[in-house]
Design a protein that fits this description.
- The complex is a heterodimer of chains A (about 625) and B (about 260).
- Chain A has 3 domains: about 5-185, Nucleotidyltransferase, domain 5 (2-Layer Sandwich), CATH 3.30.420; about 210-440, Nucleotidyltransferase, domain 5, CATH 3.30.420.40; about 475-615, Substrate Binding Domain Of DNAk, Chain A, domain 1, CATH 2.60.34.
- Chain A contains 16 helices and 30 strands.
- Chain A is globular and about 80 Å long.
- The model of chain A has no long low-confidence stretch (mean pLDDT about 85).
- With about 260 residues, chain B is mainly α.
- Among the domains of chain B are: about 1-125; about 185-225, no CATH class.
- In chain B, strands 1-4 form a two-stranded antiparallel ribbon.
- In chain B, helix 3 (about 75-140) packs across helix 5 (about 155-180).
- Residues about 65-75 and about 240-245 of chain B have low confidence and may be disordered.
- Classes of the chains: A alpha+beta (about 625), B mainly alpha (about 260).
- Strand 5 of chain A pairs antiparallel with strand 5 of chain B.
């Protein structure tokens, strides 16, 4: 049986699952990590937190994992716990930085805004550190794996948010290679969650889904929310799954909710004449997190008392007491993050243009509005393409105007462990499309489902058996083409987008624009503006989109240079004009490759994203 | 005859030389070492060396006298006497050999004992470190030591209750995370129970009037607790040595210092 390794490189937590037998649900491999000075432990989750200790901060050799002498960084549980007390030395959410186009992601900028002198990491390095730890952990626990589990020969599937753009995928791949994974397959997280559900419901999933169904995979974790739609069709009497739409990257999750509750309790305490220092606030966040979990999972509770102690050893000297009532919790969490809204509401954009240069956190906390926006984008996407429109005809007819509503929903992520939050989401979806009869799909262990699904996918891929979700590229990609117009001072010519990779392009397909030859000069760097869209499924290879800067999203520029090579079969001398054709391909590993092919020989030159200039 | 005496003397000189070197090394080792095991080891080696040398000197002192007496009666029955003394001497030498073998065995045994005491010391040190680690965790997560070190009699009940919530939330979270605790007795407290002959006294403790033979009939006063899992963080050994040397105090929670931004 093919073995496979699934890695969920999460924003808040990372998980490794292994599939030893495609007929059983993949299992999670515990991760050894530093629990404190001179102390290590195993946990199913590795918090994606990296702490950069000061050389004098801890006794030497006290923060080691069993397989390494390296003490430059500490990862995991202790890193996160201690890091909240020394935020200048803590790197969190490295993954969100990996897809932040405002910064150079290969530059050592983390911890963001930190004043530490040395040891800073780039988003790519930070992700590589986490993957390195997970890889070492796999080797360390090799004896716990099945006897014929060959680590080096098993495929490794690494999940990325569906919203990750081409650059973030390339960088994730780069991080994996730095960590020593020779080859990883990238898989979108919502798809992984669905694979996990399929592996758990091997005998019954075909009965639970039917032709014409539309599944919303709704993943709300600690720091991010991610949506995808998967349409169910039929092909030769067999169910066919196709991922038809993915959402934007939304930096909004459970941590925001804990903070909101903590601010509410802080306000109450301060109104009563108390002052709360920084340390007490940190303790308060911990207290409200567990209070929230209890209130949202136990209907019989009306309120949960909250006590917070100060930092000093006398608990009585600094004790503050308050409570969170059910009504307060529900109004903050449900009405703040899952408000009942009408189908035509959309997320509010931040009006002020002055924004801290850090992570682009969502400005609207209402997840239901983000969902409405996603379902609206999905409708635009589906309606732009005849095939997709046909596939979703039934659902389109039952959805309100301007929206494509699902009739099945698969929940994932820690926030959605709460029944209350899940049923609120279902209520809201029902109110938008009353005739849709939305039903949840029963999944288990939402924290680890993505890693499990990834391992299952790896095993299925390898053996060629089992169901595959048709996906291809989530976006369509465009090359910027300057409109030919007469030069007018002060006016830059408009840029149009030439579609070079249509949405849904399957991996391995080699695309090239027919009859489009470029002349490139040897020895000179040439740059191309590059755009993408997740709402234009109808565009075909060669489609020209007017005003790319308005209608498409711009990515970092693509650059390449034909090096001077006088000894080649066809000599390349500096300044020569070389005729080339643009080719594009989605690699089997899930990354987008673009290259220029020499018309007269087999020579080709790869186009690379320029991350330095785009980060301005 | 003469050959034998010279050989014995030669052996003596060699042993004496060995004794000098050994005792010198042992002494210097003794003064340099700090832990009791090395002390004991050193003393044993030293004592054994003295015993060996002492035994040797006894034999050597006896040998020349015998040689002198031998010369006086040489004319009479020189051949038979020489043979007899030769036999006596060889007996002495073999006794000496036996003694050396005995002493060597004793030395090996002593060394083995000291090795195993080292291992058991390491074990108990690890257990100590794990215990301190548990206290550290209870303090870190649930302010356990803070609470118990405080005089609760001077505070009103409402305050004690508020503090107890902090301790309870932290410590119960820790128990849930690292242990899997369930009642030992599956039934309820107050119910009647019959303990069969095969009952396990580790699982059930008998109180009240305990006599006669099982089965015992009684009432469950307390259900007891059992943990199906112990998953506490492990103490890393190198660290345990550094942090918890047997003569130093064990740190449960370090003092915390907030460093001001410069």
């Amino acid at each position: 049986m093919p073995n496979a390794i699934g890695i969920d490189l999460g924003t808040s937590n990372s998980v490794v699952a292994i599939c030893e037998d495609v007929h059983t649900v993949p299992r999670v491999l515990d991760c050894t990590q530093v629990a404190g000075p001179n102390s290590v432990e195993e946990r199913p989750l590795l918090p994606s937190a990296i702490y950069i200790p000061h050389p004098n901060e801890f006794p030497s050799e006290s923060l080691r994992v069993p397989w390494s002498d390296d003490e430059a960084v500490v990862l995991g549980h202790f890193a996160r716990e201690h890091g909240t007390l020394v935020p200048d030395r803590l790197v969190t959410s490295a993954k969100s930085w990996l897809c932040n186009a405002q910064v150079d992601r290969r530059e050592a900028i983390l911890p963001w805004n930190s004043e530490i002198e040395e040891g800073k990491l780039s988003p790519v390095q930070a992700s590589a550190k986490i993957l390195e730890h997970l890889k070492a952990n796999l080797n360390f626990h090799a004896e716990k794996l099945g006897q014929d589990f060959d680590l080096s020969a098993s495929p490794v599937v690494l999940t990325v948010p569906a919203s990750f753009d081409a650059v973030a995928r390339v960088l994730t791949h780069e991080a994996a290679q730095r960590a020593g994974f020779e080859e990883v397959i990238l898989l979108e997280e919502p798809q992984a969650a669905l694979y996990s559900w399929i592996s758990e419901n091997k005998d019954s999933w075909r009965e639970q889904l039917a032709d014409g169904d539309l599944v919303l995979v709704c993943d709300i974790g600690g720091g991010t929310a991610d949506f995808s739609l998967v349409a169910i069709g039929e092909n030769d009497g067999k169910l066919d799954l196709e991922r038809i739409s993915v959402g934007e990257h939304i930096l909004l999750g459970g941590d925001n909710m804990d903070l909101a509750l903590a601010y509410a309790v802080q306000g109450k305490l301060e109104a009563a004449g108390n002052t709360i220092d920084h340390w007490q606030f940190l303790a308060l966040v911990q207290m409200v997190r567990s209070a929230k979990e209890r209130l949202l999972s136990d209907d019989s509770l009306d309120e949960v008392p909250i006590s917070i102690a100060g930092k000093g050893s006398s608990l009585f000297a600094s004790m503050l007491s308050s409570k969170i009532s059910r009504a307060q919790c529900e109004s903050i969490i449900l009405d703040g993050y899952f408000p009942k809204i009408s189908a035509d509401e959309r997320p509010q954009q931040r009006l002020s243009s002055l924004q801290d240069f850090g992570l682009p956190y969502a400005s609207d906390p209402a997840l239901t509005r983000h969902l409405a926006g996603f379902l609206s984008d999905s409708r635009n996407n589906v309606e732009s393409d005849d095939r997709l429109r046909q596939l979703c005809a039934d659902r389109l007819s039952r959805s309100p105007e301007g929206m494509l509503c699902p009739n099945k929903i698969l929940f994932n992520g820690g926030v959605l462990r709460s029944d209350t939050c899940r049923s609120r989401l279902i209520d809201v979806l029902r109110s938008w499309a009353p005739s849709n009869e939305i039903e949840p799909l029963r999944g288990a262990e939402l924290d680890v489902a993505v890693a499990r699904g990834a391992a299952y996918y790896g095993s299925v891929q390898d053996s060629g058996s089992g169901i595959r979700i048709r996906s291809g590229t989530a976006r369509s990609f465009y090359l910027g083409v300057e409109a030919s117009m007469l030069a007018v001072p002060g006016i830059t010519p408009a840029v149009h987008g030439l579609c070079v990779v249509p949405q849904g392009t399957e991996e391995g397909v080699d695309l090239s624009l027919p009859n489009k030859e470029y002349g490139l000069r040897v020895g000179e760097t040439v740059g191309f503006r590059f755009f993408s869209s997740n709402t234009r499924a109808g565009d075909r290879l060669g489609t020209m989109v007017e005003r790319a800067d308005k209608n498409l999203e711009e990515s970092p520029r693509l650059e390449m240079m034909i090096p001077v090579d006088e000894d080649a079969e066809v000599a390349m001398r500096k300044g020569d004009l070389v005729p080339v054709e643009l080719h594009a391909r989605l690699s089997e590993l899930g990354t987008l490759d673009l290259w220029m092919q020499h018309a007269a020989s087999s020579k080709q030159w790869k186009l690379e994203f320029n991350l330095r200039d785009s980060a301005s | 005859m003469r050959v034998l005496v010279v050989a014995a003397l030669g052996l003596g000189v060699q042993l004496y030389y060995w004794y000098e070197v050994v005792s010198f090394q042992t002494l210097s080792k003794l003064f340099a070492a700090k832990d009791p095991e090395t002390w004991i080891e050193g003393l044993i080696v030293l004592c054994l060396s003295y015993l060996i040398i002492d035994a040797l000197f006894t034999v050597l002192r006896g040998a020349p006298e015998k040689v002198a007496a031998e010369e006086e009666t040489a004319n009479d029955d020189a051949a038979s006497a020489a043979l007899q003394r030769e036999a006596e001497l060889s007996q002495d030498v073999s006794r000496l050999k036996d003694k050396v073998v005995q002493l060597e065995t004793a030395l090996r045994e002593a060394e083995q004992r000291s090795e195993s005491s080292k291992a058991s010391r390491a074990r108990s040190e690890v257990i100590d470190a794990e215990l301190v680690n548990l206290l550290s965790l209870l303090q870190e997560k649930g302010r356990f030591i803070d609470f118990l070190m405080e005089d609760v009699t001077v505070h009103p009940d409402a305050q004690v209750a508020a503090v107890a919530r902090v301790v309870h939330q932290g410590c119960s979270g820790l128990l849930k995370e690292y242990f899997s605790i369930k009642p030992m007795h599956q039934g309820n407290e107050g119910e009647k129970v019959k303990l069969e002959t095969s009952f396990n006294p580790r699982e059930y403790r008998l109180v009240g009037s305990v006599h006669g033979n099982p089965p015992f009939n009684g009432t469950v006063l307390h259900r007891g607790w059992v943990t199906e899992k112990i998953g506490l963080p492990r103490v890393v050994s190198e660290g345990a040595d550094a942090d918890l040397s047997s003569d130093g105090p064990a740190i449960i929670a370090p003092a915390e210092v907030e460093v001001a931004a410069s």
